[in-house]
């Protein structure tokens, strides 16, 4: 039996960006590198958990001992999460899922014609929100990437998505996305804690300790 603060637990993690297709060769995406999510996967594994990692397109090696599933779009990430969530006790959603996708995916490459074109976008499914509402046994940890009013927006997301914990990070040029360091302001109902700034690998270890403490405190699990 493994030692560690998450020994015997199954953790499902989403990481990286999603790609939302416009046509066969083009997509909408964002600057997430997957570093934060992959660091958490490694830290959960080191803490004794069985870890499954659903990753958008990133250029990172799979942490040793972690089971990885590659996906592209928000819909594919949701489908895989639905398939894998059953046995998990903890869900950590670090993925920077696209909030909108093109309403129609063109079968053929879009041709250059007029001087400007308009793209119609529709909402993608809210993976974390759907799972936390349906899987009431799950301990859910969300992330909130904000450029301003970190605390207010993060707390609103925690409530709206019905989460047990949310990790807010300030993002912008050279901050949060695609860099090695990060800082998190973590909120849960009844408390908060600042972690970092430090390397995402060290930060992930501290966050795992906090998640384990909060998980053990909750009596609904
Ligand atoms: O990947 P890195 O380069 O290391 O960067 C790390 C990070 C900045 C991407 C990460 O720390 C982070 O903040 N991830 C969440 C980014 C985000 O898109 O947050 P959000 O505020 O849009 O979403 C809130 C939460 O809902 C997140 O947990 C997100 O995974 C989840 N979500 C959002 C939209 C959606 N359709 N489905 C979701 O599950």
From TrEMBL:
Co-factor note (free text): Binds 1 FMN per subunit.
**A GO cellular component annotation in the UniProt record:** phosphopantothenoylcysteine decarboxylase complex
Output one GO BP term.
Answer: pantothenate catabolic process
Pathway of action: Cofactor biosynthesis; coenzyme A biosynthesis; CoA from (R)-pantothenate: step 3/5; Cofactor biosynthesis; coenzyme A biosynthesis; CoA from (R)-pantothenate: step 2/5
Q: Which residues of the full protein are shown?
A: 175 to 395 of 401
Determine the domain of life of the protein's source. Answer: Bacteria
Q: What does this protein do?
A: Catalyzes two sequential steps in the biosynthesis of coenzyme A. In the first step cysteine is conjugated to 4'-phosphopantothenate to form 4-phosphopantothenoylcysteine. In the second step the latter compound is decarboxylated to form 4'-phosphopantotheine.
Stated name of the protein: Coenzyme A biosynthesis bifunctional protein CoaBC
């Amino acid at each position: 039996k493994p030692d560690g603060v998450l020994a015997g637990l199954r953790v499902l993690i989403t990481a990286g960006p999603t790609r939302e297709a416009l046509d066969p060769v083009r997509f909408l995406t964002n600057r997430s590198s997957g570093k934060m999510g992959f660091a958490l996967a490694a830290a959960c594994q080191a803490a004794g958990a069985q870890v499954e990692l659903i990753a958008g397109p990133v250029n990172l090696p799979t942490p040793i001992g972690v089971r990885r599933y590659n996906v592209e779009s928000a819909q594919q990430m949701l489908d895989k999460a639905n398939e894998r969530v059953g046995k998990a006790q903890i869900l950590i959603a670090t993925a920077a899922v696209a909030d909108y996708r093109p309403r129609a995916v063109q079968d053929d490459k879009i041709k250059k014609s007029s001087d400007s074109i308009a793209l119609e976008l529709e909402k993608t499914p809210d993976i974390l929100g759907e799972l936390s509402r349906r899987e009431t046994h799950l301990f859910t940890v969300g992330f909130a990437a904000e450029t301003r009013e970190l605390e207010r927006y993060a707390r609103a997301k925690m409530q709206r998505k019905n989460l047990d914990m949310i990790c807010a990070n300030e993002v912008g040029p050279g901050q949060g996305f695609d860099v090695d360091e990060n800082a998190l302001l973590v909120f849960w109902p009844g408390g908060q804690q600042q972690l970092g700034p430090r390397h995402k690998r060290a930060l992930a270890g501290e966050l795992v300790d906090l998640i384990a403490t909060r998980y053990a405190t909750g009596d609904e699990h």
